[in-house]
Amino acid sequence: MKAINRRGFIKTCAVSTALMASSALLSGCDTKGTDQSTEAAVEVKNFEEGINWGNEYDVIVIGFGAAGAATAITAAGNNANVLIVEKAPKMLAGGNSRVCGQRIATVAKDKREDAIAYIKAMRGNFTTLTDDMIEVYVDELMNNESWMLDVVGVGEFKTIGTVDFPNLPGAGSIVNKCAFNTAGWDAKAYHALKAKVESMSNIDVWYQAPALELIQDPATKVIHGVKVKVDGSEVLVRAKNGVVMCLGGHEANAEMHQNYFMQTKLNTVGNAVYNTGDGVKMASVVGAQMWHMANLVTDFDFVYPDTNIVCFGTIPMFAKTGIVMVDGNGRRFRDDATKSAHGKLHFADTEIQAIIPNRMFAFFNKEMMDSVDRIHPKFSLHNEEGLASGWIMQGNTVEELAEKMGVPASGLAQTIEEVETALVDGEDVRFGRDVTTMKSLKNGPYYAVEMFPDIVNTMGGAKRNKNGEIVDYDNNPIPHLYGAGEFGDIWAKEYQGSCNFGGGLVFGRITGKNASSVKADSTQEDLVKPENKVAPKPKEEKEFECAKNQFIGKSFGMGGEELVVRVTTSGSDITNVEILQSSETPRVSDRAAKQVPQSIIDNDTADVDTVSGATVTSNAIKNAVKNALGMQ
């Protein structure tokens, strides 16, 4: 291993040689009754002592999403000293857990058998997810709500009834719930986990500290720590009892998309740009078996061309106006009013990966566009920005638009004929779309928006057992190495929404408990003197200046850091609202950042309307203003 310095390598080899010599001398003797673990313990101890450690903890957690938070909270609750290393800066930490719908999978006590049957049905004929793991998983899903309420301290839960595969046995037994009685998409559940972590004195979090390598004893295969990049330097951090890999998937690794999914341009829905498949590389080096690498949640959406930010939920939003989806031939290719069931579409007698043509477009006419004030809630009023910038293409005729799209005009003409026939017959024969959602395309002008395949999350990674232990290719646990979250998740085929966040909590608790248990094959003594411990340099706290009649207010939106405003008043009037700090998603939050402060100024109150498509950011600005004025 590159993590071992020369002195440590020589020392370890010397001890190993001595042990082998001792074994040779004893080979002719009766060793019955001797403690054969002594030699291994001596060798392990000397391996650890031979490393130039920069710091040490009982447990190291790689990644600070929902799974990483649950792992750390559970381990710290078992009196372990825990370190979370997070690749992203604080403002972007959390990966998919921060930007997802915040829906947490739960199971009622009387629905246990139904939930087991449902997951078995989703598994189908696949064998990599065993029955005993399904049972453990469901048993922990039953604890999700009470754990979030009692341990994390979230507010009341709201039930969101989404069932991805309603025709399967046991459908509806896994119930999606949102904390704080909200509809989700607000980062609140993740922020609650983060706040709980930050409140525990025996958990340290290092941001912008990517894990580079796992440190493994080549003889015993025990994972003793992690090489971490800290402030530009490589630091070896020791884990006395366990390393837990919660570092997400490979949503932002184009090469892995080609190798595992046969796709070349998948855009990460949650802007999870730090999910680059680092875990696959690190775990492979230490002999971990991979599983579920070809499984992913994917579909297609509009992507802002200047930022690559995905405008999520485009298909059902566009369908409300009658818009159809066409491929590079100008033809429809699926039911274009229905979003896939988390990446799966029903075909024949099974579920298949969502169909993603090489090129895709939303195709519509002026009548459809004029029927609403914007064709997507996140678009500008009357779609002015899209029309002006050209990403909403337009043509007076089918031929003119087809040329701009780069598709055959004959294909678009066939699509128009197909839609008209469906409207007359009352049935979409080819794809089964509900014809009440379809509208006539026979009159122009015509418009198109290019769509792109996206990736919500991946499932593949290091295989784990029901105890959360990562296993090798003989299915033997790699000592002291664990996995939780979407890195090596359990889903072999279909996937039920809310089980990424909810499942992260499940294996977070399992691995937090098991990783924090004291191990006999690792010395529990401190090997690093306190004065020699390395840690990231403290970040300077930002100070925000205020003049007379100016007030600072803070609140959380979708971002990982607080949204900070400065409010200026004159008597009872609000004369200015400035956003001084924001980690909200670019593009998605832009209209709220512009319109909400002005609306507050115009109305002299923070109780103004939110901006459609940017509700969370709107509320964050309003709450920050209230905070500044002492109203919250």
- Integer average pLDDT: 90
- State the distance separating the first and last CA atoms: 54 Å
The biggest beta sheet reads:
8 strands, mixed
Strand content: 15-25%
In angstroms, what is the radius of gyration? 28 Å
Please provide the count of β strands.
25
The gross shape turns out to be: globular
Portion of residues within helices: 25-40%
Low-confidence stretches: 1-44
SS-derived structural category: alpha+beta
Query: Number of DSSP helices?
Result: 18
Chart the SSEs and their pairings:
Layout: H1 6-26, H2 37-49, E1 55-62, H3 66-77, E2 82-85, H4 95-99, E3 103-107, H5 112-123, H6 131-141, H7 144-152, E4 158-160, E5 174-178, H8 188-199, E6 203-206, E7 211-216, E8 223-230, E9 233-245, H9 254-261, E10 267-268, H10 278-285, E11 290-291, E12 296-303, E13 310-311, H11 314-319, E14 324-327, E15 344-347, E16 350-353, E17 360-365, H12 366-370, H13 384-389, E18 392-395, H14 398-405, H15 409-425, E19 446-458, E20 461-462, E21 469-471, E22 477-483, H16 499-515, E23 550-555, E24 563-570, E25 573-581, H17 590-603, H18 615-628
Helix pairs in contact: 1-2, 3-8, 3-16, 5-6, 14-15, 17-18
Protein model, in words:
The protein has 632 residues and is α+β, with helices and mostly antiparallel strands. The chain has 18 helices and 25 strands. Strands 1, 2, 6, 7, 8, 9, 21 and 22 form an eight-stranded mixed beta sheet that branches. A hairpin with a 6-residue loop joins strand 12 and strand 13 (310-311).
